[in-house]
Specification:
The structure is a homotetramer. By secondary structure, chain A is α+β, with helices and mostly antiparallel strands. Chain A has 3 domains: 3-126, Four Helix Bundle (Hemerythrin (Met), subunit A); 141-232, Helix Hairpins, CATH 1.10.287; 250-368, Jelly Rolls (Sandwich). The first copy, chain A, is built from 15 helices and 8 strands. Chain A has helices at 3-15, 23-39, 46-76, 80-85, 87-104, 109-112, 130-139, 141-166, 171-174, 177-188, 201-247, 249-252, 256-265, 340-349, 351-367; strands at residues 266-271, 276-278, 286-292, 295-298, 303-306, 311-312, 326-329, 333-339. Chains A, B, C, D: It is a multi-pass membrane protein. Chains A, B, C, D: InterPro entries: cNMP-bd_CS (IPR018488), cNMP-bd_dom (IPR000595), cNMP-bd_dom_sf (IPR018490), Ion_trans_dom (IPR005821), RmlC-like_jellyroll (IPR014710), VG_K_chnl (IPR028325).
């Protein structure tokens, strides 16, 4: 490739070094993995095969290039080892090195390319809400672990029992404890392939017990995760909303306790530009506060622009709940949504807010006469 | 068909254009889909076959007719494109056009009629609580999505691993990554058909890990949905109840904060006419407020009618918890149910309410002496 | 049988007519069903077979007899039709009539006796917490139903799709939509027998989607039930505890609001006579109030009896949390358990209670010097 | 073995008699069970086989020895029968006696050694959070039991129905109710081996219903456990935190009600020595109180040590949420974590705390100028 092209590419990648994933990378991952997958199907004719390998090499090239640029970029900012130890740094390295290393080590090409499946790891840092999931797993690790231990104990006890009961009847499938272990795992997870199945009456009773404990393990597992998740969601939502709320002048007036209150009631919503938030004539059961960005209310005859700190849709909460006008975002905006439910409560607890909203509502009503 | 009949039918359908689904439509959907299903079973004799096709044509005719009438009806109200873009509009269109279009395009008749399965879509707009489900899915989409991504990553990594480990031993089943992918999905969802099963020790260890992550994915999924659902239910119930509560004079007296309180405690219940609400002699643990409609208390000797705003069953909450009389709805009624639990709390928080109920109770006791 | 025996038996049964199930009935059900089950296994020799039938006849006789006596008993109390329409009345009738009717109708004996499996229905009225489960199902029926509808729609759409995709490749398994429906249910419930499995690439993709929606259906289902159950448990526990609390003089002093508070914190516990509640030297994290019955504190040298309204184990919550003495129930007792957690909160909210408990604790400490 | 070695060993074991499990025991369990498992695989050559048995004997010897020492140790403390009846005492006994007894009773050696799988029971007392799980199961036993009963009823009714419908078509699989029972359990748990599958239309409809009830049972089960678990977690966390909180001088000032409040907001965290708690430059959303141990704040130029009762990381909650310095534990420490969420609420409810923290924060800011 010609120098300028490369440097241009380098600039582009460097520019994106901050973000976890570039669109380009996503495409490369998808293309790469799919190609690799198809390659393993017997190629109908040579050409297809060659095309595929070409694609794979291209993806690999992209990842290696991206990695190198990022390394240079980070080095230039003295954040090199920080990056190399970060999850995104590691997956970049793996994506770039796995296949080449395998090839260098003389692994047969067809096999080496299988490693390109590791490219999927590149999406990990980009997964939304992954942090949240991890926190739940960490906080609940104690009980989850004990469930796992119980799971393993049941597996071992059950498989030895089955081995003892079935080995003489069907030596080919229950001929050793390891095969019985395989059966136990397949059964306790209620997967039930049916490749190994007890046939003796006693063996079947043991199996039945294992299946029922399977449900139990499931239940515990889910129960634990559900509990942890509920707590985490509340926490996460609060954090996301807090900053925003305190920025909205409308709430700034309130004391910290009231703000904590309010924060528990609001939900943040990030919208791209030109998105319709409210459709005229639709049923409304929430109002909106503009934390950042700008929206446009499409009133008969004129268009009214509302900026940071303003609110709209309050009519829906003040008796008449059919939306009176279309409202659309003008630029990327962050809104705070207040549900009718919480609105009622809020109004009850903070009458002053109620008045402000009421007054504003009246003013608008007059204005739009 | 004769003109009058058609126009009559048209009127009927137009009248129902507002509602999502008419009984007739439900019947047509059921008949149509069942007939189509049976048609695919080798017909025992010609006659049956002919009857079936006749039925299918009839259903189709009904849907087309319904659709046309609705279109005209909507057009007459300038709500045409709104309707055509609404979910119910779309399913009406699909129900009416799918099969004919297929036939016109020259698809073999037997196959074309399979499209009549799309008629089941017509029930979607009529599903109760669907809105609620959708809201949960939307609000929790973030975490749900990340679980899905994790799911896919596990599927890909596992299937490549298995392909690598099993391809030589059982080339017919693990001969390519796509087949391995099939195995991975079947296993991770703990479906476990058993058509593709790893046999090598390493392959089985990988499989065991996949199954266990299967439980994990399940757990996360459920945990997320359970959390979202809990929140949604609370919200939904509040909205449904709020309007009603504020209409009951008995509560109207209370301030907004108290109303919010009360609303959280009440449960709305819609009953058809002539339904027995309370059976004499039964155990009672809740009282009722009449939001709309009318009920009849069947006292010894006389029948007392209670209308909007009245309450009954309070005796059960004031010490004597055996129902003293049968209570039946006279017309379609909406009741607000107050559980003993919440009654206690309510009374504690709003002694004034307690007195009102007490007084009324006493009055009635005397009266019914 | 001799007259006196019969009448004695009659008395016994009549005496138990109130209760849902007598021990005898449980035994009869167990014996009957097990015998019936074993009878279907080819009998090794005649004798066994005869013995079995004898047993079955005996069980049947018991159920018929029980039913007749109950009928007479209820008739004598003018509660006949109430009983006959009650769940327990219905299952009694079924238990008594199913088999005889079948035999009379000339059903082949071996088959007729299969109906004795209906005897298991007799345990229904005796299931603990069944009321609770039913309430959850009723209250959440809305969302549960919509999940079911979605389930069915997926089943229908998927099966027609699979039928279309697989019918030519494997006509014997996917030869008609009904067989495809069978596949769809087996798959969507993640049961996965493996008797019907798609083989075409497209068919497998559809199947994968079905499996994943399977997880979704699961998740929704569980989420809904979990939510409903949480609410129900709280409610149920409150109801069970409320009555008891208000009976304990110690709490009677409190106002209704405080009682509501307390009730939310206590847990009822019913114990048989001579049960050890507290073991000396064990770690303690809760205290007990005696709602009814009597307990015995086994102090060095003397035994102290505590009756209704008294409390014990409070030391554990006042600093020293090693139990100081064995405590055993003297007769059947109902205790209210107060956890350390809630104790702290309670003390904070109702300092007067704190003092009472403190004082009593001190008094005892001195006394036991 | 030479006397001194034995006595040394004895001392070691006795020393560990208090703890549930020693590392050595864990190793022995792992080695023993794995060896036993492998032994059942046909041994490639004699040597391996001999080595394995040697290992097993060694493990057994260890367990017997450990048990004897513990017995002596406990006897010396008059806690013998207490120990022998405790769960850990029982598993020790089983671990030591099972295999020998079997061998003595003349069970064929290969089979006798299978009992060494019981060694896995030795880990039970060591499982973290097992107490918690057990409490949940106990508290929710009522509903769980009723779900189980329902499960069994469905199993019985379904299997008899299937037996009746399928026995003539496939006598080899549905030839008796017991085999039908096997099918029912496999199906209701959604395991679905596929070894026994209904083929008649009616049989399949029954099966479909069973599968769907399977989902229901799952859902109920999980719902119950999730509910119980949520309650238990809250309780557990409170107990763990309470003691600690009341020890922190910073909170001691507060009244009991405030402490109860605070306790609900804090999370205990136990850390080994030399662990980095806060990394400079990271995002912070919580502050820490030192309940016990000591931490080191690594400020530019100097290192500041903070001891019991001190707090740090508060800056993150006072506006600037980028961590300003590394903080590491010096010795094993127990910290109380206060999330931003709860911090806000706490500050709102207890302004005095807010001031203390603010003041301290300012002081430090100046100091570190």
């Amino acid at each position: 490739m010609s120098k300028p092209l490369i440097s241009a590419l380098a600039k582009f990648v460097a520019a994106t070094a901050g973000r976890n994933m570039t669109k380009a990378a996503y495409v490369a991952v998808a293309v790469g993995v799919v190609t690799m997958t198809l390659l393993t199907v017997d190629p109908t004719h040579e050409a297809a095969h060659h095309g595929a390998s070409a694609l794979l090499w291209a993806c690999l090239a992209y990842f290696v290039f991206e990695w190198l640029v990022r390394l240079r970029h980070m080095a230039s900012q003295q954040r090199l080892e920080l990056y190399m130890l970060s999850s995104s740094g590691l997956v970049d390295a793996i994506g770039a090195l796995a296949v080449p290393v395998a090839l260098v080590l003389g692994v047969e090409s067809k096999t080496a390319w299988l490693l390109s499946v590791l490219w999927v790891l590149k999406v990990i840092p980009g997964i939304p809400g992954l942090r949240q999931l991890r926190r739940v797993l960490v906080l609940e690790s104690g009980p989850l672990l004990s469930v796992l231990v119980i799971f393993l104990m049941v597996v071992f006890l059950a498989s030895v029992a089955e081995y003892f009961l079935e080995r003489d009847v069907q030596p080919q499938t229950f001929g050793s404890v390891p095969s019985a272990l395989w059966w136990a795992v397949v059964t306790l997870t209620t997967t039930g392939y049916g490749d190994v199945v007890p046939v003796t009456p006693l063996g079947r009773i043991v199996a039945a017990l294992v299946m029922i404990s399977g449900l139990g393990v499931f239940g515990l597992w889910t129960g634990i995760l559900a509990t942890g998740f509920a707590a985490e969601t509340r926490r996460d939502n609060f954090l996301k909303t807090w900053e925003t709320v305190s920025k909205v002048p409308f709430f700034a007036a309130l004391g910290p306790s009231a703000i904590a209150d309010v924060t528990h009631m609001l939900r943040t919503m990030d919208l791209p530009a030109r998105t319709m938030i409210i459709r005229k004539g639709a049923q409304g059961d929430c109002m909106y506060f503009i934390a950042s960005g700008e929206v446009e209310v499409d009133l008969p005859g004129k268009k009214v622009a509302l900026g940071e700190g303003a609110f709209f849709g309050e009519m829906a909460l003040l008796g008449n709940n059919v939306r009176g006008a279309n409202v659309t975002t003008v630029k990327v905006s962050r809104l705070l949504v207040l549900d009718l439910v919480d609105f009622r409560v809020l109004m009850a607890r903070h009458p002053d807010l109620a008045e402000t909203i009421d007054a504003e509502a009246k003013r608008r009503a007059l204005e739009n006469k």
